[in-house]
Design a protein that fits this description.
The structure holds 2 protein chains of 2 kinds. Chain A has 14 helices and 2 strands; from the N terminus they run αααααβαβαααααααα. Chain A is mostly helical. Chain A has one domain: ABC transporter involved in vitamin B12 uptake, BtuC, CATH 1.10.3470.
């Protein structure tokens, strides 16, 4: 059981990063369906930079920068050029898949060095890690896992407790009103889209740099899409995102553990996707005013047409 | 700088802007190729030669263009209703699954009976797979993009399950493979390409006609423009959405039938080969116009075929072609802005 929980938290970490990134993006009123692409771009950038420099810090920075840039690219198309968000997001995913697979051809089969891997070894947080059952899963993990939880809490505080965060919510809910009250709508959108992209990039990099840590083509395997569904499931709430990610992290590894009971691996592999559908249907039936999407989501904002 | 809506856009100007956009994307791609240490011109030339250089290669390229054309038509119907169906991949697979079920179990039937049966089965398979997100969207407002994508993954795993489990060919000596179809279940060839190309042309004509000339086609475009208008005009919006999406998925399902019957001769989890995703690009680039879909799809089929050719000729990975496609799309969707708007210098006065 303890082993399962530890694996669950690890499996949930890339989902958590991507979900938080997309929450930030959608809070700014932008629906970026390119999460999968941004994760792949971050994954290949992190792996490439980490492998060539053997520096964990550079790997992480590369993933952040690459993810941020891909968010910026989406922003340029949808904010400045008013392109259709759905199509732009899909293109970003196709681009990310092509880009990562193109650059990744040189990395296939390569593994990070021992010294690199040790810098992402789990380390115990004193006292907390000795809590029975959940101690090891939550407090004896690698830097990324802690980072994900910290970012989730910070984002929660930012959105609900700070002035800038409330401004962001205003931008997503009602851009004209936000604009009228002196908020620079486009700047807010750009900044949060870029930050959101960086988080998605980190989520992808966790897979290639820490979890696997070996380059595989299409290493994210649909996690970006699950993250988009998770955003709806957790009702755009960063704190709830932690638990949503645990649920899906658990589903993605449960198949492996049920295999011994003679159930087909292929059928078990459909579980996370099946549950995503069920979850999405349930959350769309009970979407009320409080946990619905931002009002301005995916509606382009034209100052001139105000 | 500020922008104003253009009123002076002529079709020829719009084409010029799009051409500039595509040229720019090719320029960026050339930069990539230079960085890789190759001559972009010779790479592009050999891509074209690889795709259209010989009769055999042209046949190969057209064989790739067929599923792209038909899938794009299916996707186009959904996109016209602003139903963001990215589940063509799964709809192709489920169409292939149903058609294969018929082919494997009733392979003794005469060709003239068997092929139409497989055709219907393919339509039903794809249509059913599209019915799910359509009903969910209409009833609960569930986001169709994610549902259709999740259904893609489920379809792939389902076929893999069949391939490794219940449908595994006992005569394959343990190799996880589904049995080959009987000769009766294979689409005939005409001019070296399976007759799917004729079917594709017929589908393009029928759908163009329905969209442009019939009441149902008109209803579809009204719902696509504004659900409220359609409702106000007394249309049954739910029914229109569900029917069109089922037709959209059914057409994608036909692709699955044509691929198993005309190309692969059996069912594998890889039968859709990413056509479902590439067709999203071709559909959008065609401006949701059925007739434009044909040349765009042939062009993209050429890129796929040429892409695999330069892989052997220059050791440039196949994914370079994917990258090129995405670049082109980026530039074209970005260029739409310059077709819609004009940038003017605003005089420096108002300090907001």
């Amino acid at each position: 059981m303890e082993g399962f929980l530890v694996a669950l938290v690890i499996a949930s970490t890339p989902l958590l990063f991507a979900t938080l990134g997309e929450i930030m993006t959608e809070k700014a009123g932008l629906l970026n369906l390119g999460v999968e692409g941004m994760m792949l771009i971050g994954a290949v950038a992190g792996f490439g930079a980490g492998y060539t420099t053997n520096s964990p810090v550079i790997a992480v920075i590369a993933a952040i920068v690459a993810g941020g840039f891909s968010g910026l690219l989406f922003g340029f198309l949808t904010i400045s050029l008013r392109a259709n968000q759905v199509v732009s997001g899909l293109t970003l995913t196709i681009f990310g898949a092509g880009f990562s697979s193109f650059l990744g051809t040189n990395f296939i089969g390569l593994k990070m060095s021992e010294s690199f891997i040790t810098s992402f070894e789990p380390f115990k947080i004193p006292l907390l890690s000795s809590i029975p059952i959940i101690g090891n899963a939550l407090f004896n993990q690698d830097l990324f896992v802690y980072g994900g939880m910290i970012v989730a809490i910070l984002l929660g505080v930012y959105l609900y407790r700070t002035r800038k965060g409330l401004n962001l919510v205003a931008v997503g809910e009602n851009p004209s009103a936000a604009d009228a009250s002196g908020i620079n709508v486009d700047l807010y959108k750009y900044v949060h889209l870029t930050l959101g992209g960086a988080l998605c990039g980190l989520g992808g990099a966790y897979l290639s740099v820490v979890d696997v840590p070996q380059w595989q083509d299409n290493i994210t395997a649909g996690r970006g899409w699950i993250a988009i569904a998770l955003v709806i499931f957790v009702a755009w709430n960063p704190i709830k995102a932690i638990f949503g990610a645990y649920l899906f992290g658990g589903l993605s590894i449960i198949g492996f553990r049920l295999q011994q009971y003679g159930i087909s691996q292929s059928l078990l592999d459909t579980l996370p996707y099946l549950v995503t559908i069920i979850v999405l249907v349930i959350s769309s039936t009970r979407n009320s005013k409080d946990n619905g999407p931002p009002k301005g989501l995916s509606v382009p904002y034209f100052r001139e047409e105000r | 700088m500020r922008m104003i809506k253009r009123t002076d856009m002529t079709p020829s100007k719009a084409i010029l802007i799009r051409t500039i956009a595509i040229s720019l994307s090719i320029l960026i791609a050339s930069l990539f190729i230079v960085i890789m240490g190759h001559n972009p011109l010779s790479v592009f030339v050999s891509m074209i030669v690889g795709a259209f250089g010989t009769a055999y290669r042209i046949q190969d390229t057209l064989t790739i263009a067929i599923p792209l054309v038909v899938t794009s038509i299916g996707i186009m119907i959904a996109f016209k209703m602003k139903f963001w169906n990215i589940g063509a991949e799964g709809q192709i697979l489920m169409g292939a699954f149903m058609a294969s079920y018929v082919a494997l179990n009733y392979g003794d039937l005469p060709k003239i009976v068997l092929l139409p049966l497989m055709f219907i089965a393919g339509f039903v398979g794809g249509g059913f797979w599209a019915l799910i997100p359509a009903v969910l969207k209409v009833q609960f407002g569930t986001n169709e993009t994610i549902i259709t994508l999740m259904l893609n993954y489920i379809a792939i795993n389902w076929i893999t399950y069949l391939q490794y489990g219940p449908w595994k060919d006992p005569g394959s000596m343990g190799f996880p493979r589904i049995a080959e179809f009987s000769d009766n279940a294979l689409l005939p060839k005409l001019f070296g390409v399976h007759v799917g190309w004729i079917i594709a042309i017929i589908i393009v004509i029928i759908i163009s006609f329905i969209l442009a000339k019939t009441k149902n086609g008109y209803k579809l475009s009204v719902v696509g423009e504004s659900v409220d208008t359609a409702r106000y005009a007394g249309m049954n919006v739910k029914r229109i959405i569900i029917t069109s999406i089922v037709v959209s998925g059914g057409i994608c399902g036909l692709v699955g039938m044509m691929e198993v019957s005309g190309v692969n001769r059996t069912l594998t989890a890889g039968v859709s080969a990413g056509y479902g995703y590439t067709a999203i690009i071709t559909t959008w680039l065609s401006g949701l116009k059925a007739t434009v879909i044909i040349p765009v799809s042939i062009l993209f089929a050429g890129m796929i075929k040429g892409g695999s050719f330069i892989q052997t000729a220059f050791q440039i990975p196949q994914s370079a072609a994917d990258l090129l496609q995405a670049l082109i799309l980026f530039f074209v969707i970005g260029s739409e802005f310059f077709i819609q708007y004009r940038l003017v210098k605003s005089e420096k006065k108002e300090v907001a």
